[in-house]
Every structure is written in structure tokens, then in C-alpha cells.
Design goal:
The chain is mainly beta and 132 residues long. It has one domain: Sandwich (Jelly Rolls). Helices cover 3% and strands 42% of the residues. β3 and β4 form a beta hairpin. The longest helix has 4 residues. It starts with a strand and ends with a helix.
Length: 132
Amino acid sequence: MPALGQAVTLASGATSANQFADTTYQTVSPGTRLVISAGVQDSTGALVNGTDPETDYVFRVNAVDLATNVNLPIITDGTVIASQNAAYQLNAFTTTAATNRPFLTFRNNSAATRVVTYFVNIQTAQSSVGGV
């Protein structure tokens, strides 16, 4: 199945670009399922569960806000960020409009650099046939 994903380094106070912009998936067909998974850590790996990472995300499709300024979970050692890891699955949405423009950004509200690792599983009718 198609996917997007990478590690994005955000300086203090920075907001990332739309992660779908300038990709094959900046516009998707109706019936496309988008599964968003992400987590955050600082550049030294010092963030621990139970602390506020002060890093959030926005996810929308067209004019529908699906998540606005929602805190990201902290990545713990050895964790895999993928749509199958429920601890980091943030949102799953199936598009319905004739043309769909997904939008995903990350914002660092902390005083330190943050590294956001994300993975978007893109399930289209064509890519799901026969498990391909």
C-alpha cells in the first residue's frame, strides 16, 4: 500500500509544511482511507511518558478539521511508528468527496528542538485489491 512518512525536525516555535503538499497524494480519490500515525521525541531522546511534549498536529481533509492542535504521543525506545501500532495511530479517515485535499502539519510549542516521526498509510481501492 502507498505510504508517506519521515522524521521532521522542528525548531522551537516552528510549524512544519503540509506533509501531503507536492506529493502524489496531495489530492486523493473518494474512498481513500488515510491512517495517520505519529510520535515525538526531543533531539537527545530525553522525553519520557507522562511529560508534556508540547508538540501537536493538525489533520484535515478539505474543510473538515479532523484534529486541531492535538498533542502527539512521546516515542519510547525501540518503538515502531506504523499504522499497525495502536499507541501511535492518531486518526483514520475515509474520504468521500469527489476531490480530497489532505492537510497534515506538526507544531513545536516547546523551548527545545523536537523530532516528529510520522507514517501515513494510504489505502486506495486500487492498492487494496489482492493486498497489493
